[in-house]
Amino acid sequence: MKELLSLNNVEKTFFSDEGETKVIDNLSFKVFENEVVSLIGPSGCGKSTILNLIAKLENLNKGNIITNCEIGYMFQKDNLLPWLTVYKNIMLGLEIKKRKSKESEDYTFSLLKKYGLSKFASYYPEELSGGMRQRVSLIRTLSLKPKLLLLDEPFSALDSQTRLFVQEDVKSIILEEKLSSLLVTHDISEAIALSERVLILSPRPLKIKKELKLSYDNSLLPSLRRKDNSFSQYFNDVFNTLHY
Ligand code: ADP
Ligand code: MG
């Protein structure tokens, strides 16, 4: 299996007038091709900081991070600009990265069609449901042809019904496009429904308390996993590790 991401003995401390805060202490893990890995941990433990370090939005203090592929980053909020249409919002990713070309535009338009968004191309974000906006945001991320998706609590702003549909949608797209993903969440069911491995994190300074390998086949969608007997066992396992 090809290694897409490797964190090696990573340490991160924030310095401010009030002093220093060590957020991450000696963290190591890998993400391989065609797998979804979840990071689950309490609020404020440093999950978003990990993604920011990987995306090089923050610098680390010790250790190193090796990435072997194009990376796409999708945030909690959809970050769509309200004054641009769906089409223009999606093309914005290419423009910002200065990768707009006939070929990249054609590819992006083919994604729009494939994922049922072409009829909404001239809509504005406020005319779409929360789930559809997340889909637009994901397609914008995919236009840059990433192999590894960094997802920071992408479902947390959605109501609980919509969340289930969008989880199913995102996992299907990850499978269809043969992507890997590092998914940050504080929702136990979400981690088990979507990923192949769950890294359970401690409060600050963040460490991996336990790594849980799930026995599901990669291609098993969240709705079917939830019906499996093992689901509640995994849930209890993650819950107990997080809280004790
Ligand atoms: P999580 O995503 O797990 O909720 P974060 O990674 O956002 O946690 O934050 C972890 C800790 O680091 C928090 O205590 C937060 O206040 C602190 N932190 C995050 N970013 C910065 C920053 N730019 N400067 C100072 N402290 C920060
Ligand atoms: Mg966060």
How far the N terminus sits from the C terminus, by CA atoms, comes to 34 Å
Highest-level CATH class of the largest domain = Alpha Beta
What value does the Rg take, in angstroms?
A: 18 Å
- How many strands, what sense, and barrel or not for the largest sheet? 6 strands, mixed
Mean pLDDT: 94
Beta content: 25-35%
What's the CATH superfamily of the largest domain, by name?
P-loop containing nucleotide triphosphate hydrolases
Structural class designation: alpha/beta
Helix and strand succession? EEEHEEHHHEHEHEEHH
Globally, the shape reads globular
- CATH architecture identity of the largest domain: 3-Layer(aba) Sandwich
Which fold name corresponds to the CATH topology of the largest domain?
Rossmann fold
Strand order of the largest sheet: 5-6-7-3-8-9
Number of domains: 2
Bound molecules: adenosine-5'-diphosphate, magnesium ion
Number of helices: 8
SSE inventory with pairings:
Blueprint: E1 3-16, E2 19-32, E3 36-40, H1 47-54, E4 62-67, E5 71-74, H2 86-96, H3 102-114, H4 130-142, E6 148-152, H5 160-176, E7 180-185, H6 188-194, E8 197-201, E9 208-213, H7 222-227, H8 230-243
Parallel strand pairs: 3-7, 3-8, 5-6, 6-7
Antiparallel strand pairs: 1-2, 1-4, 8-9
Helix pairs in contact: 2-4, 4-5, 6-8
Adenosine-5'-diphosphate binds next to strand 1, strand 2 and helix 1.
